Amino acid sequence: MNWILGIDTSSVALCVGLFRDGQPIASYSRMLKNSHAEHIAQAVSMLLDNNGVRAGDISHVAIAAGPGSFTGLRIGFAFVKGFCLTGTVRVLPVSSLFVLAHGADSGDRDVIAAIDARRGEIFWARFRRDAEALTRETPDTLGPAPEFRNALTAGDTVITDTMGYAQSTVFNFLADRPNVFPVERYPVQRGFICAAQGASLLTDGSSWKNAADAMPEYLRSFSSPATSKGPLQ
Amino acid sequence: MITLGIETSCDETAVALLDDDRILANMVYSQIEHARFGGVIPELASRAHLEKIDRLTATVLKKTSLSIDKCNLVAVTDSPGLAGALLVGVSFALGIHAQTGIPVTGINHLEGHICAIFLSRPDIPLPFLALVVSGGHTAMYRVDNVGKYSCLGQTVDDAAGEAFDKVGKMLGFPYPAGKAIEEEALRAGAGAGREAVFPVARLSGSPLDFSFSGLKTAVKYYVTEKGKDYSREHRPVICRAFQEAVVASLVNNCAAAAEKSGCKRIVLVGGVACNMRLREALQQRLGDGVCFPPPELCADNGAMIACAGFMRSKLNLLRPPHMDPGGTL
Fold first, then answer.
1. Which terminal CB of chain B, N or C, has fewer other CB atoms within 10 Å?
2. Top CATH class, B2-116+297-314
3. Per-residue pLDDT tens over the stretch B97-137
4. Is the peptide bond before B127 cis (omega within 30 degrees of 0)?
5. Residues 164..223 of B with a Cβ closer than 8 Å to A: which?
6. B87 → closest Cβ in A74, A215, A233
7. B126-292: same fold as B2-116+297-314?
């Protein structure tokens, strides 16, 4: 029997989910801005305890790997690395945009998942829904807002995430457009989707990693202090 | 009792295992990634911690032939420090707890530095004065017991180690510059002239507080006034004068604190405690009452955090980690 734990700390919501083989068991999601580290252990323990599962029973962990909040991603990955220190648990990094794209029922339209990356840039990717599955059309991309705007076509469904940034304006141009789903109003059970993705890829050994090799996909590389706050003064 | 200590508050990823107060393994990964920027870049530090933390822990466990479930306690730094860096260590520790049920306790980084002395001097009598001097902190505490600290004085601006790094940058040394300045000062020789003399700050109203910002500015003005060629040629003398000013400030305040409190035992801890000139000057002024941990336990390390966890557990002072990047002792 395989127990799959799903974890998503890439945005404002702290989300965990649980699958047994291909069977959904439970999920838990809570809006917790700036406090994922304080609650992640409690959230996982509660999910497992309430379903009679011991931590040692977990054989696989699927985790949202970004893009998203750098700090949130690191909290999730650091937790998973500690959780998997015993060495037997396999880890599946899942694209946060892929997870987000599940938040919209796009019918037969393409769905574009987009996250405010600050600095006037957007993390985004395009997916196509065939039957019940989402297939990727473009890789996860970081680009300026106008580039994202040009990539949209009239029939697209768009799901957006400002990552709790109250001053976000990059998605304002979508205000009058149909089929736009801000995740703040249409929450996504991201931990559940991570676990579901893990369940669907259980037999695909090449997708799974040792915890030590699993790292976030920041998409924005760190280059020089010119693009950051610089050294501590 | 086996304690796993985890330290990620700044730019060192450190993990250690202790059996009571005996070090079984103590490993530190110093992030050289920051050297090219001349200072610690918080985002870079957080990324590097995440890359190293589990591999370092696995190496420590392998070195001691222990499995994680043999640990009785996980002690992790939760304050003060860089928020993103602390979060990596705390989240990692909580992951271990969620899998194994091993209790996790949060440790104040400064308390960790102070507890480093118990690793080399477990019999040190209480109370004592602890001078914590590092790149991020300069403060003096009266230590009545583990968990019972009174702050007697602290820096009102830069930390001493920070002043070393910033002056080092002015003089063309790579980051971190503490060791390089100490070595350069030695080249000036004992009989070198006194071409450069820098002020030692005395703060009226709070005589046990420290200040190094004015000293840093004095060096800057001196270097600017004398010019690049002169400063390069006389770098050993400048380093010596700067180091003497820092040492005088620290030693003067220690002597004053010892006199005021009546406590003659003084423990020097933190990264700057590796400075041999500071050790020598403190001993000259205050005699045999001065002691220090070995250099490898002065800089940030996991053993000091594990030791603080072990000592707190003996006194039933364990507490869950709570993130407090700006926390004080």
1. N
2. alpha beta
3. 999 999 999 999 999 999 999 999 999 999 999 999 999 99
4. yes
5. none
6. A74
7. yes
